[in-house]
Amino acid sequence: MVTSIRKAFLTPGYVTSGNFTSVDESDTSWSLAKTPWERLRWARRRKFASAAEAARKMTMGEHTYSAYERREDSSKHTALTFDRARQFADEFGVNWRWLLEGQGLPFDTDGQGYTPHQRRLADLIKDRDVTEQDRIVTALETLLRSGTLG
After folding, report:
1. Looking at the structure, do residues 90 and 123 belong to the same domain, yes or no?
2. CA-wise closest residue to 89 among 56, 49, 54, 62
3. What is the pLDDT of residues 45-99, one digit of tens each?
4. How far is residue 114's CA from residue 93's CA, in Å, rounded to a whole number?
5. Do 79 and 47 fall into the same domain?
6. Which site from 9, 26, 38, 82 is most exposed, i.e. has the minimal number of CB atoms within 10 Å?
7. Range of 142's domain?
8. Could you tell me which residues are beta bridge partners of residue 17?
9. Distance between CA atoms of 127 and 54, rounded to whole angstroms?
10. What is residue 22's predicted lDDT score, i.e. its pLDDT?
């Protein structure tokens, strides 16, 4: 039984309801983000409705985080550094090089071409022992080959 429903919001590239985020990898609105602060804002909006929400999740002051999303000509702008780009990229599920330098694609989060969905699968099994990982991969292969997923 559902006792409460959190209003879902839609922004180009993702749909969020509660703690669930579904990424639309066909979204190309990221290509309009030309500067680090624009790319950061685009990436954050894929996962969080507000800068304040993102800051809370990262245990960072709201104003501290928001300064990274300000225009470069703003007196309160803070330039994105390598360390912060890595931190934000990890939190928002994007490629840090794309975030900081505009190189590559936002969905190539580990430099190996994995999409967010592929990365989710890897994250699900990364802390399990090798034998269990092998059993999971074998089961998934069997399921995919059977065609029962559609």
Report:
1. no
2. 54
3. 989 999 999 999 999 999 999 999 999 999 999 999 999 999 999 899 888 888 9
4. 11
5. yes
6. 26
7. 115-150
8. 20
9. 26
10. 45
Angle between helical axes of 36-47 and 82-92 (0-180°, round to 10): 30
| pTM score of the predicted model | 0.59
In a domain, 11, yes or no: no
Q: Do residue 65 and residue 138 come from a single domain?
A: no
The full length of the chain comes to 150
Token output for 21: 């985020």
The alpha-carbon radius of gyration of the chain (Å, integer) is 18
What CA–CA distances, in Å, run from 70 to 25, 34, 41?
26, 14, 9
Which residues neighbour 12 within 8 Å (Cβ) at sequence distance 6 or greater?
Answer: 24, 27, 29
3 is written with which tokens? 């006792």
DSSP 9: E
Q: What tens digit of pLDDT does each residue of 118-141 get?
A: 778 888 888 999 999 889 989 988
